[in-house]
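hey can u check if this looks right to u? its 107 residues, i copy pasted from the old doc so theres a chance i mangled smth
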Amino acid sequence: MCFPHDDPLRDLAERYQCTGEPPHRLSETMAAGLIPAVRRVLRTGLGRPELVRWVRATLPQVDMRPDRTQPVDPDQAAPPLARLLAAKLIRGRTAPRRQAAETLVGA
């Protein structure tokens, strides 16, 4: 079932998964939708705080500039970051959740 959450990124992942698309297609669709938000973070440093933190932490994994003293090109860095984020969101949503231990009170 699809329910809204307090976490907008988790809500986005669940909304995409409710479309019933195959996983590879879902990842492509989600990544395409995330590119503008990631690009905005790269250009301005603004966005949802959790997304800004994630982009800043993950950027070194995709930053292939020979001269890192130059600014990042948001148009080049946004697509691979969006693909990584889409994969992370899908993995997080489809990962098996631990079942809470059942407890009987007063038994």
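The chain has four helices and no strands.
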